[in-house]
Amino acid sequence: MKPxxxxxxxxxxxxxxxxxxxxRALEKAxxxxxxxxxxxxxxxxxFTSGATESNNLALIGYAMRNRKKGRHVIISEIEHIxxxxxxxxxxxxxxxxSKVPVDYxxxxxxxxxxxxxxxxxxxxxxxxxxxxxGTIQPIREISNMAQEHGIAFHVDAVAAEGLVPIDVQxxxxxxxxxxxxxxxxxxxxxxxYIKQGVRVNPIIxxxxxxxxxxxxxxxxxxxxxxxxAARVIMERMPEEPSRLEKLRDYLIDNILSHIPKAYLNGxxxxxxxxxxxxxxxxxxxxxxxxxxxxxxxxxxxxxxCSSKTLQASHTLISLGLLHEEAHGSLExxxxxxxxxxxxDAFLEILPGVISRLRSLSPLTKMEELKE
Amino acid sequence: MKSTNYSKKxxxxxxxxxxxxxxxxxxxxxxxxxxxxxxxxxxxxIKVNDExxxxxxxxxxxxxxSAVATSSMITEIAKGKSIEEALQISRNDVADELDGxxxxxxxxxxxxxxxxxxxxxxxxxxxxxxxxxxxxRYACPSGxxxxxxxVDAYLGKGVHEGYEDLEGMRGxxxxxxxxxxxxIEYALELAKITGRVIxxxxxxxxxxxxxxxxxxxxxxxxxxxxxxxxxISGGKTVEKVLIHDLDExxxxxxxxxxxxxxx
Lengths: 371, 263
Hints:
- The structure holds 2 protein chains of 2 kinds.
- By secondary structure, chain A is of the alpha/beta class.
- Chain A is built from 13 helices and 10 strands.
- Chain A folds into 2 domains: 234 residues, Type I PLP-dependent aspartate aminotransferase-like (Major domain) (Aspartate Aminotransferase, domain 2, 3-Layer(aba) Sandwich); 130 residues, Aspartate Aminotransferase, domain 1 (Alpha-Beta Complex), CATH 3.90.1150.10.
- In chain B, α2 packs across α5 and α7 runs parallel beside α8.
- In chain B, 40% of the residues are buried.
């Protein structure tokens, strides 16, 4: 992507030679991203500024274009916050939103989805996998249900991309959101897959770039980086996910067997290979995070104390967890550079951190630990 | 400022908290503030001598990094002060002594001062010792079970009045309203076949045999004391319940698949 910052900064819409260089690079990236999700044609890929914009284009663009068919949209309780907020916006525009609950493992309850289908339902938006707890959704079953009723199906694949195979054709998917930075590409680029024949209104109006669906001069350097990241990740499938899966299971088994009153959030097997999500009775997640941070380990938490809103994670609450359990949760994600040695070092320090914080907490019931 | 961007002093008090523990004996009082539902709970113990001076002080805290640090800091500030002087310590004093807190964390330091003031209030009112914690601020629950909305509408659709359908509960999130030994024996059986069993009672503890209480503690059952079921809701079958926390006088929602209300 570097030359597109320093040398080849032609506008892909221009007819001169530098413009041609840029437009060739753009189309190559489009083919790479299309191949990454097995899209039938490269033109089904619309480049955007990132996943948030893609989600906006998918939900608002589809709902506005198809509002004469109906005004009912279904999402799940554990969608990414951007989907929840877009749904709220659509509600203000006169659409009705239904949310499907999930089970204790974070899987969408299909019988509850069935219950929510209506004559005027036009769109279902369900993530491929959850960004916090890593639960992978039954995409094919959901798309069968959508197709049976002539409803469009949008999939937010940001958490899943690069970790599980994504196939828009086999999956029966109409719209699919991707981001560049979630597959180690640069920030500032994303894509929306729009299946041929699916009609969407643009949400950004202008000079008609990206088939008129996303006006504005393309960020060539970021998009080229996105295409390259997609190629690299394809080369690493399926070895890298299976390497991560082994490390993940090793981590989970060790924590659950060595720390009392520790629980795994999410699904035991249908989860992203890089995701392990725990909760520990009686202590608060942000304190675990800060303690680990001082020891050089970076993790995340569903605790309200670490968020901007001071609200416990809506995903964890949707699993049926109590607020104090959601506060006590810890997300550990593994990456391309995570090694077995690092996991061992983490396993070495975590029990001490947990028992130190438990010794500080008034909620800790020592007799339960002894029993 | 990021919410976990702490000063060196905050991190020092978090990593090496001063005066952790509890106090017992004469002239001891305790103040508890916060609510684990909000992510913070703080107990501050004080021992006061005949001249009204705080001669010893300890804390226990469930909460974020700054909650621990502010608890630790307030024990240092208050130690050796008279109770009247200690009542003047404000949340800003605690934050200042720690070289500041991230803005969103100011509520945590608020708690440390409140807990100390609560302990002093309890001391003055002669409420001494940790056994006074619950009754110091909150009314005891009556133990009467009030009417729950939605029971009839969801009977057979996720609401069960008996213990017959054990196998049908496999893998589900089940909430059991405590109703004597038999209800707890059933909950313990449930815990063997599903990962999520919640037992609720309006009382502070389960009113069942000691051996069963012990078995519940050893199991993965989540116990909700001082709680009442307000409403059961969902689509064609149960999806959620609304729970009233008698201790906090507060309602909150919980996602469940089945509710057992023995009659």
